[in-house]
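Quick one: structure for this chain?
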Amino acid sequence: MNPTTGLNRLYWKISATLLLVLALLGVGYLLITSYTARRYLQEVNQRLYGGIARQLVKETQPLVNGQPDTAATHDIMHSMMVINPSVEVYLLDTEGEIIDYVVPNKSVKLERVSLGPVRKFISSEGQAFVLGDDPKNPEVKNAFSAAPIIEDGKLTGYAYIILASEEQAAVTSHLFGSYMLKLGADMFFMALVIALAIGLIAIGLITRNLRRIVERVRRFKEGDYNVRIPEKDKGELALLADTFNEMADKIEENIKQLKSMDRLRQELIANVSHDLRTPLALVQGYIETLLMKEDSLQPEERRKYLEIVLDSSEKLSRLVAQLFEYSKLETDQIQPEKEPFLLSELAQDVFVKYQILAREKNIEIRLDAPPELPLVFADVALVERVLQNLMDNALKFTPPGGSVAIQLKNRPKGVEIRISDTGPGIPESEQSHIFERYRKSTSVENKKVGTGLGLAIVKKILEIHNAAIQVQSKPGQGAAFWFMLPAYQQ
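Got it. Here's what it folds into:
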């Protein structure tokens, strides 16, 4: 789907939603305004005419011995209704029962009035806004006026006057409804037009930024991995833009890693094919020789050929093991299982293992490990692999009569281990490259058989321990490699 078409649909969907919300808000506004206005009119009516019940009691004695004085009170009640036809006059006993009334149409439906609102009104002296029962309309509450009737200092009943009769309520409701309809329609239409215009402008601004973001996402999809959403185009969608930028950075980083892994794969294929060719050719050649000269070979020659085949196969085995080990380190498939241990004990084990090989090559090995070294926190097996690779490297380049030293030193932040030899040394121009995979020294003195992976494996193992390998060497003065492992914090 065209991104522009999709954004236009989104724009109109949001606009339609906004219109619906505004319509619902308008209806809610009318209902709330109508209810509030009705309450306001009732309160005004009660404040204006709330004293007529007291006036009725003052002008006449509505009850005599607890019974209505019909002749006297009805004349006054009728006079009040002539002046204000909207009122309905009731006489209540002390329990709230209606004992007499003067109302239009005689359509009284209640026999009793709740006295709670009546007492509250009287106690506030007519100042509190209280709605009471409407005997002609039991389902609604209405504004009223009330006053106690006292005989000989004793409460005998109440005068209870509804201030808006049923007929008045019907008329005012119709007029009020017509007024509110006109007022509400006008206000609602104006508010709707203004709010809708503002909303459409705001939605347009938001979708404009969204269109810019979509355009950059499309470019990223088509292969422009450098594209990002600039600060000026983020607008109200800053969170979305920042999320895209972070995602793009991550994807670009992953792509670079994949390209690096692809280069590594190609290098592995090239180097493996090269490194495997020589020992495989030797194995194949000598096996063919053994087969061709099976009857003419002397036992000494046969043994010599078999030893060459065995040596070549061992080199193949070591090469394949190193290739697998380095590929796992390169792809983060090996994670260190750290534990506290004594580095001096591990160094002693390595020292003992390499003594036989050193004696065969007429090389002296020394171990200098001071007592009371602290525990270190690392993966024992991986650290042992580091020491083995460094020892293999030292013995390989040290000539007969030379020496290799293993030194451990206590440092403020851990234990330093140094392996040095008396070999031909490493030219300064090559020292920064010796830890790269398949990188071998090009000096004539150092042309030894090897895969070029030993020091690269050392570097990778120490990197996953957050440690670094250092080298110090000068041609003709040997080489020294050292690193430090952190002390175990108990």
